[in-house]
Specification:
- By secondary structure, the chain is an alpha+beta fold.
- The protein folds into three domains: about 5-75, no CATH class; about 80-200; about 205-335, no CATH class.
- Helices cover about 40% and strands about 10% of the residues.
- The protein has helices spanning about 60-65, 95-115, 170-180, 185-200, 210-215, 225-230, 250-275, 285-305, 320-335, and strands spanning about 5, 10, 25-30, 35, 40, 45, 55, 70, 85, 135, 155, 160-165.
- The strands form four sheets. Strands 5-6-7-8 form a four-stranded antiparallel beta sheet.
- The mean pLDDT is about 95.
């Protein structure tokens, strides 16, 4: 994630809604991938310094949970990120408004990275069969009034489902410890599940499927049985050829875990470059250079956290087989 500049020269950040220096309203334009300083006009319009006109996303005006913009000439009510959301929890229950806002924030970071990488992001409103959608749901464990007994994070036919409790830090950490995981975040969930979506569009049914199977295994292996075996067994250490223990459950989970880590790597390298933390200029298109930079940065990030007595932010090891899996992903994203 790069940083941005207000017209007053102050550095601004992706989630900002106002410049803390001059007070100017800020909004993110996904077409330009830019956080823009704005001037309020009559009729709810917003004007950028170059004269371009916008409207705030409906989730901005109604709930204050979005800082993305809608082009003034568009008939969309929601920004390109919020337009992907199909279902939200009951906002009058408990602290669902705040939790939903955190999930939308994570989703905007996911969408930003997908757009930076040039990947297609189309809502199911536009393409009901092949578009991408998100359902943010709660189950009876949080709200006895809902129908869903249990809501599991997952992907099916282009729809990514996430349990609202994943935005609750205590609930999420409790689950992380129960499952013996080293990392669990809403952004990680969304990046992982987006991997299943893009597998269906970039690998399945293409000439790259044989190469996928050579690296990850046969995706036709019984998925349900594989997950049953994974969750029935005690937590186990990560195998040498895998990025995480969960990646060992099934070839499709191996792919999705690697996809999530590829997005982690690309987004964090862009952030590091914005703060001049890389040894040399960033080169996200040069895979070997990017991996070298990422390994050095990951070591530094973990060392910095340990200096503060905190957990490692990147508790993973990129072995040679994992790097080759990430290379395969990179070649799909950057076919040239």
């Amino acid at each position: 994630m790069k940083t941005f500049r207000c017209s007053c020269g102050n550095r601004t950040f992706f989630e900002n809604t106002h410049c803390v220096s001059c007070g100017a309203p800020l909004g993110f334009d996904p077409a330009r991938l830019d956080l823009r300083p704005l001037k309020r006009l009559s009729g709810g319009l917003l004007e950028a310094p170059d004269g371009h006109l916008y409207r705030p996303c409906r989730n901005t005006t109604e709930y204050g949970v979005c800082n993305w913009l809608v082009d003034a000439g568009s008939d969309q009510a929601y920004c390109d990120s919020c337009d992907l959301t199909r279902t939200i929890p009951a906002l009058d229950h408990d602290n669902n408004l705040a939790l939903w806002g955190l999930l939308e924030e994570a989703k905007r970071r996911l969408v930003y990275t997908l757009l930076v990488l040039g990947l297609p992001v189309v809502s199911r409103r536009v393409d009901p069969d092949g578009g991408l959608g998100f359902d943010f749901l709660e189950d009876r464990g949080r709200n006895p009034a809902v129908m869903e007994e249990h809501v599991l994070t997952g992907h099916a036919h282009g729809v990514i489902t996430l349990n609202v409790k994943e935005a609750d830090h205590l609930a999420r950490e409790t689950e992380r410890h129960r499952l013996g995981e080293t990392y669990r975040t809403p952004l990680g969930h969304l990046r992982h599940e987006s991997g299943h979506y893009y597998f269906e569009r970039m690998v399945y049914g293409t000439s790259r499927l044989a190469e996928f199977r050579a690296l990850f295994g046969n995706e036709q292996a019984d998925y349900g049985a594989a997950l049953e075996r994974h969750y029935a067994a005690p937590p186990k250490p990560t195998g040498y050829a895998y990025i995480s223990a969960y990646a060992m459950a099934h070839p499709l989970e191996d792919w999705a875990e690697c996809w999530a880590h590829y997005l982690h790597m690309m987004d964090t390298l862009e952030t590091a470059a914005a703060f001049h933390l890389l040894d040399g200029a960033p080169s996200l298109g040069d895979f070997d250079h990017a991996v070298t930079q990422w390994l050095n940065l990951g070591i530094a990030l973990n060392a910095l956290n340990r200096s503060l007595g905190m957990l490692d932010p990147y508790p993973f090891v990129l072995t040679r087989p994992v790097v080759e899996k990430l290379r395969f992903l990179h070649q799909l994203v950057h076919p040239s």
